[in-house]
What we know:
Elements: H1 2-8, H2 16-34, H3 41-59
Amino acid sequence: MKKIFRKYYTDLFLGKRLFIGLGLCVCLFLFSFFIPILGHLPYLAFGALMVLLLIDFFVAPKRGKGVFA
């Protein structure tokens, strides 16, 4: 269990861009309540953000030792 935890969660870095994207999704949800023309745009934006997060979550541990700069 420690090996799985170390592989996925210790190297997980939630950056500033993720929180900016989540904040934009929250703003879209709030604006869509008052502006009905936005329709399903907040749901699509949140879904796209979650798909990108899951891709990053599963691809990052396969890189090995991470990114070297």
